[in-house]
Amino acid sequence: MKCRVLLLAILALSTTACTPPGRPSSASQVVPPGKITDFDILYGKNCAGCHGENGRGGAAIGLGDPLYLAIAEDSTIRRTAAEGVRGTSMPAFAQSSGGFLSNEQIDAIVAGMRTRWARPDIAASLNPPPYAAPVPGDAKRGATVYAAFCSSCHGADGRGGPKASSIVDGSYLALVSDQGLRTMVIVGRPEFGFPDWRGDVPNKPMSSEEVSDVVAWLVEQRPQFPSQPYASAQRVAGGLQ
Predict the structure, then answer these.
(1) Of 149, 174, 179, 202, the residue nearest 71 (C-alpha)
(2) Most CB within 10 Å of its CB: which of 17, 117, 119, 183?
(3) What range defines the domain where residue 208 resides?
(4) Same domain for 40 and 107?
(5) What pTM was estimated for this model as a whole?
């Protein structure tokens, strides 16, 4: 009797543990690229190249900065990831905009950023300026704001100083949006030692209006036709139009 029970147990194990020949096990099946929702994989493949490993920043701002996540809403981050930013190096990632990621994958990236890197209490404790400008800035006032808050690093004319490079370089301004400038003024670039809106002048944080004004001044320095070696779209003799 005992031998019969043992034989039945062995047969049961063999039928449940074995996979029919030619059929891959569930563990070995490849997940289609469009079905991957793991944050580490999605961020590493699509975002880390510009925004840095673990969101620490690189060619673009650090998405893991709690201050950035405090001023940028999920809907804003999602729209930027999905549609990109026209005229800048930020591409569109959504399939609906010509990219490769599904809506679910973009949602997974945004949710992962918020879960891992956000600090919900930081906005209340620091009271940063809002992400979007409430009203347009004034470039004339912005020149005064620049002199007070920015010139000590970027130089009197914005073309570089002892602590930082040119902030009015045409190639740079041609590749960054107005909102991108505002975001950097507020959040800073801590990985490069660039202070946020509180750190330019001791004990004197920039107001939202001052941020808007200095951005307006920077925008005024942007070349109208950045790809051209001349100031306006005039006809050049012998040149293609």
Answers:
(1) 179
(2) 183
(3) 128-220
(4) yes
(5) 0.80
CATH number at residue 210: 1.10.760.10
- Once rounded to an integer, what is the mean pLDDT over residues 1-9? 50
**pLDDT value, residue 23:** 66
Residue 84 in contact with residue 90, Cβ under 8 Å? Answer: yes
Same domain, 149 and 81: no
CA angle 181, 175, 71 (to 5 degrees): 30
Q: What is the DSSP string of 217-234?
A: HHHHTS-SSTTSSSSS--
Contact 83, 21 (CB under 8 A): no
State both tokens at 236.
């050049």
195/72 Cα distance (integer angstroms): 18
- The encoded tokens of residue 82 equal 């999905």
Residue 83 tokens, joined = 């549609």
Determine what percent of the chain is predicted with pLDDT higher than 90: 71
158: left (phi over 0), alpha (psi -120 to 50) or beta: left
**How far is Cα of residue 189 from the mean position of the Cα atoms in its chain?**
12
